[in-house]
Here is the input.
Amino acid sequence: MPALAAVFVLAGILAAVMLLSAGQANQLAAGRQELLAGTVLKQSMAQVAHDQEAVTVWDDAVQEVRRLSPDPNWLDANLGIWLHTYYRHDEAYIIDGEDRPIYAMEAGKRVPPRHFATASAIAEPLIAVLRHKLSNLDRAQIESQRSPGAVDLALVRNHPSIVSVKPIISESGLQPQVPGREYLHISVRYLDRSFAADLAQEYQLDAARFETEAAPLARERAVALRSKSGRPLGYLVWQPFGPGALMIERMAPVAAGALLLMLAIVAWLLQRTRRSMLQLEASQAQSQHLAFHDALTGLANRALFDERLTRALAQAQQRSGSVALLYFDLDRFKHVNDTLGHPAGDQLICEMARRLVDSTRSTDIVARIGGDEFAVIQTNINSVAEAELLCMRVVEAASEPFVLAGNQLNVGVSIGVALSPKDANDRTELARKADIALYEAKAAGRGRYVFFAEHMDDSIRHRLDVERDLRAALAAGDEMRVLYQPLYSAQAGKITGAEALVRWHHPQKGLMAPSTFIPVAESTGLIEPLGEWVLEQACEAAVTLPLDSISVNVSAVQLRNTKFAERVFEILDLTGLEPSRLELEITETSFIESAATCQPNLDLLRKSGIRIALDDFGTGYSSFSHLCHFDIDRIKIDQSFVNAIDVREGGSAIIQAIVDLAKASGMQVTAEGVETSEQRSFLQKAGCNSLQGYLLSRPVPLEQLTGMLVRSKGIRIADAVEISDLEASRA
Here is the structure.
């Protein structure tokens, strides 16, 4: 029976080889899965912090949380429940500069801020670390780079969790904050709920789960969870993929019943082993791809983008070449999410990614670095024109309508571009300047591209200087003053009202134009204390003046504040001015764009008898159809139309049409910027109710206006011009 013995010996040898191969394959697969699990945990910690940056590096968030009474619905929609809905964060908290909780969200529902007490002991070390970072970090870095943070693993309500703390800071750098006293956002992602299921599905970790105390069962693999301090939190446990065991399980019946076919079986085994190894290698390659690519679009993620940008800049320096970095931001993306839902938003992101890839070269690197943020690294460019051509292709591609959830939408894209070595050779600095250029593109009207220029840095610094000096001026109280420009009845020719205008006399720079500091005040929230001060000064003055009305300019920022009407009523009570003598002016464009949020205040103001005027009419939407939905008492024709009056051609048909339509709608009409007698005569004939301009009077101090009112009793407009000139010469 030597042959039989030989067969059994050969079978035994082959069985041993099979067992050894199976064990090695299982060990290799399990080891690679263990490495993958550890890597995924680290990346998940970074991802939670990155999710927070989508809403914490934002001017609106800074403004909202610092309000005396932040809007809880706004916090839900942007800093709390939205994170649970979109990113599946389980808990979120907001604390103020003194570490007091002002908001809490658990399991997708808003809860009282006191619930933070449960998580506070866990978050306190991270808060302390972040406060230290913020206190010792250069302020310019905070405002121009990604925000710092602190993240760790911890047990939260007996759940192993990722806990991340991020500061709520200004996106534009225009929101002043005391270093170390910023409001903080704490986010918690449980690892033993949907997170484990996601791991099992996305990374092929069968039966993945988290155990807080028990060690893994036999044939299971585990990665220990430890905090940065070394505290054990439990284990990530899964059933490892066993290609060798699977092979033996399938081959055992065949081997037992077919010893005579041993050679064929050996050949088949070798082939099967090779196939299993190839599958294992493919699985490893897939895991590597997932670690460095965006799961939704398949584009490079931020980690890969940073690595490729660093490499591209190093190669460009070696070869004396150039690199263009393009930052993209979808216009109106949040509106799409809010109106059509997150699936439509994801569809928009994927379609935009496809259009970006189609618009670029195969050598360019396209990445998704945030929710609706993309970037392109354009390498080996020979001129700025190549980057400009790419921008034009992308803008054109993005301008094509998107079909989302059965709706056709026009979204558009804004692009900021920075060039290396012209703008910077460092990755961080180049990204910062591309981000500044993107901000300029959005500020210029969106749907366009802007290349970084040094003056943009200067512009940001200038705005910060103006903001700092304006805060000091409001605190000092002796640099601001209010002037009054009279309004004259077009027919009777008498002073009927006055418009209050704020002026700033800077101690070093002299008289500051309103166009210099008013936009800064609006973007930083300073317009509210400034506007209230002007309103109070004007109301106090009007009480002593024989005027039908006093007009005060109001920003849309003020009208969006739910407490604005209440504050106006307090000032009227304080000064004793009758509501019917107060007229509030708001510019046409800002009013129409903010009408929905301004309307509640406008309703309350008009019910009390206060009048509303639409300033600079004709420079914005210029449509009476918009005004049909709003209660407006007066429109003020912009001086650009008045300046265009051509007496030789019969005046201005546009002004005549505006006056006729306004009167038909029951509105009063005031013409601004009247500077010549011919303009005055035409406007009188056209039917304007009142006139205002340098021909009649420049803005004057209160004392001078009082004198003009005393002397103007019974005096018509023609004589008022001479009185105004005389008063100006005396001043």
The first strand starts at residue 91 and ends at 95. The first helix runs from residue 2 to 56. Confidence is low (pLDDT under 50) at residues 714-721. The two ends are 131 Å apart (CA to CA).
